[in-house]
Design goal:
Pfam families: SecE. The chain is mainly α. Helices cover 89% and strands 0% of the residues. It has a domain at 20-61.
């Protein structure tokens, strides 16, 4: 039990040393991730649609 308490005490000490990002930075970076994810998802979806139609065209021939 003592080792668990010692571990948790050390974790708390280390977390107090962390430089946490500001709220505005987190919001901006989260929006960037969402936007890039949407762009990549749209691009991947468009390629999937294109290749599906091409495959249907060649198989139906």
């Amino acid at each position: 039990m003592k080792s668990i308490l010692s571990y948790l005490s050390e974790v708390r000490l280390e977390l107090s040393k962390v430089t946490w990002p500001k709220r505005n930075d987190v919001i901006k970076l989260t929006l960037i991730v969402f936007i890039i994810s949407a762009i990549v998802g749209g691009y991947t979806g468009a390629l999937d649609y294109l290749f599906t139609k091409l495959l249907e065209f060649f198989v139906a021939r």
